[in-house]
Design a protein that fits this description.
It is a single chain. This protein is mainly alpha-helical. It has a single domain, classed as MFS general substrate transporter like domains (Growth Hormone, Chain: A). Helix content is 83%, strand content 0%. The protein contains 17 helices and no strands. It is globular.
Length: 435
């Protein structure tokens, strides 16, 4: 329980909407920056920033730097979660946005392996780490601003709105790369076209900072601050009081990371290199699914307010398990229309059944004093195995499976069933934390 005595100050509906919009905009920018790297990792970085004598090795190295971003995210979550629970959510969000923006712009200006040798992949690695640290602190703060401002009966819906930033960010990243790829020759795209999206991030960051500086701290944290009830070391307090919540939350997160990174990241290279459809078509298919997700995420967030977040998440996990084998069978047809339909249905709609209520599901597990640290740790630490290494695992399973995707599909089913069981367990043991 929260060790606070004051009542949270009343806020107007207009103020809630302003805060939620600011959270959505910031989350969109952060995810755009982060996914832009993932979209080009297997089609640009493997060619420009690593030795190209062995395509398999260069692709694995490119995905390894992609994974490092996920390894850095728990560090960002712990650092910014600590100060977010000690000092406040707002100030951490301003700082994380700046870190992410600077790192992304510098990636767009980075010389290639041919130009500066081994320094190129090393600098790319460093900037990817900074991206991971920035996003590690960003996600928890963005969803908490919406969650803690929202009426309790609508927290699933309002906390899902910053989650839309993932869909918009992916849509912008893959759409922009797809546009540049379709308008430019392959030589021009590799020479400079891919850099445009990274450098353009500076405009989005400036807009995001302007809006974020104009909002107030969340009502719940203002009460904690006024009562002097902040946790001395939120991370240790979280580990001591919420071990069950941490484990179940990370287990529930498993299918989120696995499904996203196979169907939205690995699939681009798979469709272009194995199925042999145009790279632009693969990018636009993922962009279309991400666009649909913009609308399905809040739909399932609102549904979780009605039937419960654990139940919504468990059903979504089970349905994602059913998507794995049919999804890749559809990919293998090479038919563009079929690929679009499957990606939109599986990734654009069913995946949102998990991702929409996820922020509020995790926030429900912790009290205000350690909530920033708790949800950041659960989401970002689990991201190492659920998200960061998934493209590497998928690439390896593809090789071991004789260049057939069925081992990858089995892995998706396994992750989905683990997450379903964890979500059910969360629903049966809601007594550990009360917000």
């Amino acid at each position: 329980m929260d060790n606070v005595t004051g009542a949270a100050p009343k806020v107007s509906e207009a103020e809630v909407r302003r805060v939620v919009f600011a959270s959505l905009l910031g989350a969109t920018i952060e995810w755009y920056d982060f996914f832009l790297y993932g979209v080009v990792a297997g089609i640009v970085f493997n060619k420009l920033y690593f030795p190209t004598t062995d395509p398999y090795v260069s692709t694995m190295l490119a995905y390894a730097t992609f994974a490092v971003g996920f390894l850095a995210r728990p560090l960002g979550g712990i650092i910014f979660g600590h100060f977010g629970d000690r000092i406040g959510r707002k100030s951490m969000l301003v700082l994380t946005l700046m870190i992410m923006g600077v790192a992304t712009v510098l990636i767009g200006l980075l010389p290639t392996y041919e130009q500066i040798g081994i320094a190129a992949p090393l600098l790319l690695l460093l900037l990817r780490i900074l991206q991971g640290i920035g996003l590690g602190g960003e996600w928890g703060g963005a969803v908490l601003m919406a969650y803690e401002y929202a009426p309790k009966e609508k927290r699933g819906f309002y906390a899902s709105i910053p989650q839309i930033g993932l869909a918009i960010g992916l849509c912008l990243a893959s759409g922009l790369v797809g546009l540049m790829s379709s308008r430019l020759s392959n030589a021009d795209f590799l020479a400079w076209g891919w850099r445009v999206g990274f450098i353009a991030s500076i405009v989005l960051v400036a807009i995001g900072l302007y809006i974020r500086l104009r909002i107030l701290e969340t009502p719940e944290f203002r009460v904690v601050k006024a009562d002097g009830a902040e946790a001395k070391i939120p991370f240790f307090d979280m580990l001591k009081r919420y071990p069950r919540s941490i484990l179940l939350g990370m287990g529930a997160r498993y299918i989120d990371g696995v499904f996203f990174n196979i169907f939205a990241v690995f699939s681009i290279g798979y469709l272009a290199n194995t199925v042999k459809i145009a790279r632009t078509d693969a990018l636009w298919a993922v962009s279309s699914a991400a666009f649909v997700m913009i609308f399905s995420i809040p739909l399932f967030g609102a549904l979780s307010d009605r039937i419960g977040r654990p139940r919504t998440y468990a059903i979504g996990s089970f349905l994602l398990a059913l998507c794995a084998f049919p999804g890749f069978m559809a990919f293998n047809t090479g038919d563009i229309t079929t690929i679009y339909v499957v990606l939109i249905a599986a990734f654009g709609i069913i995946y949102a059944m998990c991702y929409g209520p996820e922020a509020a599901l995790f926030a429900d597990l912790f009290d205000t004093r350690v909530r920033y640290t708790g949800i950041s740790f659960v989401y970002q630490f689990s991201g190492i195995f659920a998200s960061g290494i998934t493209p590497i695992i998928a690439t390896d399973l593809f090789e071991r499976g004789g260049k057939q995707p069925w081992l990858i599909c089995a892995y998706v089913v396994f992750a989905a069933l683990v997450s379903m069981c964890c979500a059910i367990a969360i629903g049966r043991g809601r007594g550990e934390a009360h917000s």
